[in-house]
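Query structure, 269 tokens:
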């Protein structure tokens, strides 16, 4: 899967310019995190990846094809979008029907739907709750219900908008397993998150948005090493990373173990 943005701008009907000439390529199966303060343009940019929003100028190419060539419904078969608020996505009377709805609309064979139901319901932790009404689920379970509904459609890329919001430790671990398994199955996972610990634990590439532009884009260690540039986006590195930077360690670390190793190496050196 390859998503390419070429000098893409988006201006809302109010006249506000949300995206200001974005050039960006996301390709392959390595998960990518998009971070930045509220209003930086994160959600606006990912809503262009399957045509929910269309560029004012410039272009978005999916595997070389312009987003303008097809409807959002058509693109959703290839790029699935999980909304930040589950209540914006759930509308049927059972978890099972939520999982079946998308695949049935795109013509997936019933045998495949049943097979995917078994795998997906287990993956998102709702195998024993398929008969429940989605609004009888906990807020965490609702989130996983929406994630499961999109995975059921078997898109080549999936966008998660703030999936850790409201999650506990167990929920974050499940999200980690989901992202890892999607990668193993050849899927591209793009995630918006304000949880920097979750970002550094699960993503090797980070895109930093600031005021409608891409401020930084690169390997996670390299991005979080650019302290002064990050300040422009009001992004705060994980606590252990800040401690290491404050101690003058040259290496960018994300775990206590890595901090100790870097500190010992610095002391001996």
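Result returned for the query:
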């Amino acid at each position: 899967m390859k998503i390419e943005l070429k000098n893409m701008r988006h201006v809302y009907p109010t006249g506000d310019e949300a995206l200001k000439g974005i050039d960006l390529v996301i390709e392959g199966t390595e998960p990518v995190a998009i971070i930045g303060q509220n209003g930086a343009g994160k959600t606006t940019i990912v809503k262009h990846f399957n045509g929910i929003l269309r560029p004012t100028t410039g272009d978005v190419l999916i595997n070389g094809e312009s987003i303008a060539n097809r409807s959002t419904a058509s693109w959703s078969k290839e790029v699935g979008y999980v909304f930040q608020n589950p209540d914006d996505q759930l509308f049927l009377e059972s978890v099972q029907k939520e999982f079946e709805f998308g695949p049935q609309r795109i013509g997936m064979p019933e045998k495949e739907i049943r097979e995917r139901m078994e795998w997906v319901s287990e993956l998102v932790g709702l195998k024993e709750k398929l008969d429940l009404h989605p609004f009888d689920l906990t807020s965490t379970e609702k989130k996983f219900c929406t994630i499961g509904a999109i995975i059921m459609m078997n898109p080549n890329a999936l966008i998660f908008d703030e999936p850790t919001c409201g999650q506990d430790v167990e929920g974050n671990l499940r999200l980690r397993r989901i992202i890892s398994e999607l990668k193993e199955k050849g899927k591209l996972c793009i995630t918006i998150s304000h949880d920097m610990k979750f970002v550094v634990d699960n993503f090797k590439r980070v895109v930093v948005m600031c005021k409608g532009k891409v401020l930084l884009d690169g390997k996670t260690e390299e991005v979080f090493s650019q302290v002064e540039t990050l300040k422009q986006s009001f992004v705060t590195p994980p606590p252990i990373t800040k401690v290491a930077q404050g101690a003058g360690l040259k290496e960018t670390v994300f775990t206590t173990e890595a901090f100790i190793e870097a500190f010992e190496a610095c002391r001996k050196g």
